[in-house]
Automatic annotation (TrEMBL):
It comes from Candidatus Marimicrobium litorale. Its main location: cytoplasm. This is Phosphate regulon transcriptional regulatory protein PhoB. It is found in: Cytoplasm. Residues 5-121 form the Response regulatory domain.
Amino acid sequence: MDSTKVLIVDDECAIRDMIRLALEMADFECIEAENIQQAYQLIVDERPSIVLLDWMLPGGSGLELLRRLKREELTGEIPVIMLTAKTTEDNVIHGLDVGADDYITKPFAPRELIARIKALLRRTGSGASVEGSKYQVRDLLLDARSMRVFIREHAVVMGPTEFNLLQFFMSHPERAYTRGQLLDQVWGVNVYIEERTVDVHIRRLRKALQSPWGDYSSVIQTVRGTGYRFSPNATLQLD
């Protein structure tokens, strides 16, 4: 496969070396940073395909850098996997709420990390072809080829996972899916992620669909006791 540039951000040299060796054996190109200042400069200068970001860093937390990356237009679309020793559910959900696309807890097996990276790159369109399909519900339009979403011809900003969730929903309307089924369809069957992660991304998708040009969040419906459903006929709050 084509070389994909991965930025490893961790203050422990031994961990960076372990990750770099594993990724280089899998044909990834690696660059490294040991603090958030170095990391931000490399992200701006090198534009990596994906960032592996440790939670605890000197001079500021990885969460602080994540907030900055997701806030700025230049860096907001770069996928981020959090590397964390914080295993409580609240901490994990907090990282996802801030904008992380995935997380993996230490210690982890290099093969699992590589699988997570490849799955995330597939979700963001790197290394995979995208069918030239368009899906439309009233004034909501998803263009799979350009990976853009519009409401009344105005671009809607959302993360790559939310985009892929919306594309899956729009291509399978009026069908209820469990969280496990959504994980398999959107994240991939070989990626082990807690089902609670789906709820976080559903919440982020609904928020993105609450645009000034029309509120389409109600098309993503909660099916009690099952999971979620996309309903094109839902009552909308339109201006």
